Amino acid sequence: MAEKNNVIKDYSYFLSKRGKLKEASPIRSLFQYSGLPGMISLGGGLPNASTFPFKSIEIELKDGSKLEIQGSDLEEAFQYSPTPGLPRLQKAFMDLQIRQHHLCSPNEPGKEWNLIISNGSQESLVNAFEILVDDNDSIVAENPTYSGTLSILKPLSLNICGIETDRYGMIPEKLEKLLSEWDHSKFKFPRVIYLIPCGQNPSGTTMNHQRKVDLYSICSRYNLLIIEDDPYYYLQFESSEKEKVFDGANHSGSINLGKSFLSMDVDGRVLRFDSLSKILSSGLRIGFVTGNKQLLEKINFHQQSTTLHSSGLSQAVVLSLLNKWGIEKWDQHIKSIQRFYLEKRNQMIDSIDRHLKGLVEFNIPSAGMFIWFKLLGVEDSKALIFKKAVEKKVLLVPGISFSTDPTKPSQYVRACFSTASKEQMDEAIKRFAELLNEELNK
After folding, report:
1. CA 52 → CA 144, 225, 310, distances in Å?
2. What is the pLDDT of residues 378-410, one digit of tens each?
3. Residues 6+ away with beta carbon under 8 Å from 107
4. What is the DSSP letter of 365?
């Protein structure tokens, strides 16, 4: 067991057998030299861009302004590119992480870090688990947790240790108990913990600062690598602390969204996963992972052997948008999204108060797009949702879909308030209430 605040210097302990075997693609490794002055490349295997039929791309934004991608920028977008991403976009994201999470220079001795762009943060998660966990390993996660991550982990035959949550996420005392009482004769001790700190999918919980401090301390003492999956970070519309999200900016000018695990990482034990899916476009498929340079090198090697790199066109669109906006417009956009989801959440709460009193229990989320209902008097929501709710023409997701132990029935249901109109939301909640009343009175 590691001592508290034990800085990690050798990451081989955390690597899977596959991760340890990952090596650089010999051809992809040449990309770093292709831009050197005077370099003539007979290597790479790149197709000749003059044969591509595209001349320019113009995209009109909702404010009437336009993005134009042409010339060398378009050629770069349509050509093979470095696995970590288009260099200018990678730098823009690194600058964003420095600003938002108060990171040091990526090349500071002893604290070197990097960032890799991927086809959505989901791909980065797959890549990370590929290099970190072996079949039959143990891994710790919140219970409930994101079904997409469970879909990655379950085929690996892992011992997934689900830790109970409350309104602020994973309960530290429960994690401490699991680790301190671990039976090493039955299962391998976990090396990795998976956490969704903001607007957790499905529970909607957001960790306050103290909860993160407590969990980080435990992870440091027991030497766990933290997977910080945070796609709803920018969808915080109320603070989990006493201050309000909109009360201003911190000293670097960024919006006050609270400290991330990455920002408080003194050991080098956090891999942070960000996504543009909820704030720019889910169809662009742009996410990125930030963390220790040694670990990201292995993730880079794996991505070199799978998708090679994220879509160059998607990256070029995002880069063009960020260059046009600048930080001030980016912040304005984030605030407009926060206001939008706050209004949607309030609409859902109004409908719940109108129709579901006495039928459910739930916590009001301060981030994200989900409400997690506990159905009173219903032991298992699966059949109720998959059959009877469908017959009522209302779609929800049963809690079993997010459980780390699918053998146990779940009383819970996830509802999403992101896309339905106010009127549709109210009608859906009304139908759900009718279904619950019928179920309880049968």
Report:
1. 47, 44, 19
2. 999 999 999 999 999 999 999 999 999 999 999
3. none
4. P
